[in-house]
Amino acid sequence: MLESAAPLLLVGAGKMGGAMLERWLELGLPAAGVTIVDPYLDEGAKQAWSGRGVRVEAAEAAPPAVIVLAVKPQSMETVLPAIAGRAGPATIVISIAAGVGLGRIAAAFPAGQPVVRVMPNTPAQVGKGMSVACANDRLDAGGRALVDALLGAVGEAAWIDDEGHIDAVTAVSGSGPAYVFLLAECLAEAGRQAGLPAGLADRLARQTVVGGGALLAESALPASKLRENVTSPNGTTAAALAVLMAADGLQSLLTKAVAAARARSLELG
Ligand SMILES: NC(=O)C1=CN([C@@H]2O[C@H](COP(=O)(O)OP(=O)(O)OC[C@H]3O[C@@H](n4cnc5c(N)ncnc54)[C@H](OP(=O)(O)O)[C@@H]3O)[C@@H](O)[C@H]2O)C=CC1
Ligand SMILES: O=C(O)[C@@H]1CCC=N1
User: Which positions are annotated as binding NADP(+) (predicted)?
Assistant: First the structure.
C-alpha cells in the first residue's frame, strides 16, 4: 500500500518529516517516487537523500499522490501559497504542523482538496510512533486507507472527528517523548547527586526508561498495576512515590506542562 503514496512530495525534511520519510523508505515507499522541497537542507543532507534515490528540489511534472507539509508552523504562511500549485485535484495534503488548522490549510488549495491534519511523534523513526489524524470531508475511503498505511508504517494511528482535540493530543503524544527523555535526564542527574559515577547513572536511567517502556508495551496490565508491582509495602519505592505522588508532585507538574503545551498549540494556529 505504501507504493500508492508515490509520487510523494515532502515539504520540509527536518527532524519529524525526515524521520517519517526514513521509515517509509525502509518499508517500501519507492525512493524514485519521492521529492523533497526544503531550501534550507544542508549539502550533506541533500547528498544523503540523493544517495538514497530521493529527488531533492526537483520540479514535478505530474501532481503528487500525497503532499506532506512538515515545516514549522511559523513557515506555513509562506509555504502554503508556494506549494499549493503543485497539488492536483486528487492529491492528499497531509500537514503535521502543530497548531495549524484544517480550514487554514484547505483554504490555500482549490475547493475540494482532501486535507489531513496529523500529529505524529519522533518515535516514528523506529516504528513506535503515535499519530493522531483528523481529515476534512473531502478525504474518501481510499484516501483514508492510504493515510492509514503511511501512519501505520511509523507506529500506531488513531483518527479523531473533533479537530478541537488535536491541541491536547499535541500536548500529550506530540510533545510527550520530550517529557520521557527529560525523565531519563533527571533520573540520571538524581543518581549522580546520590553519589553514582556519571556514566553509570546515565546507563541506569536510560535502561530503566527503555525497560519500563518495553514492559508497558508487552504487558496487558495497566501502568498503575505495573507501578504497584515495583512497590513493596513500606519499601524503597513507596518512599520515593510518597514524594512523586504528593499534591505538588508529578501529576500536578504534568497537568501544568500539558496545559502549557496545549495553550501554545492554540497560539501557533
Ligand atoms: N519534532 C517533533 O517532535 C514534532 C514536530 N511536529 C511538527 O513538524 C513540523 C516540523 O518540525 P521539526 O521537524 O521539528 O522542525 P525542523 O525545523 O527540524 O524541520 C522543518 C524543516 O523545514 C525546513 N523549511 C523551512 N522553511 C521551509 C520552506 N519554505 N520550504 C521547505 N522547507 C522549509 C526547515 O529548514 P530550517 O531549519 O532552516 O528552517 C527544516 O529543515 C512542525 O510544524 C512541528 O510542529 C509534529 C510532531 C512532532
Ligand atoms: O514542539 C513542538 O512545537 C512540536 C510539536 C509537537 C512536538 N514538537
Answer: 70-73
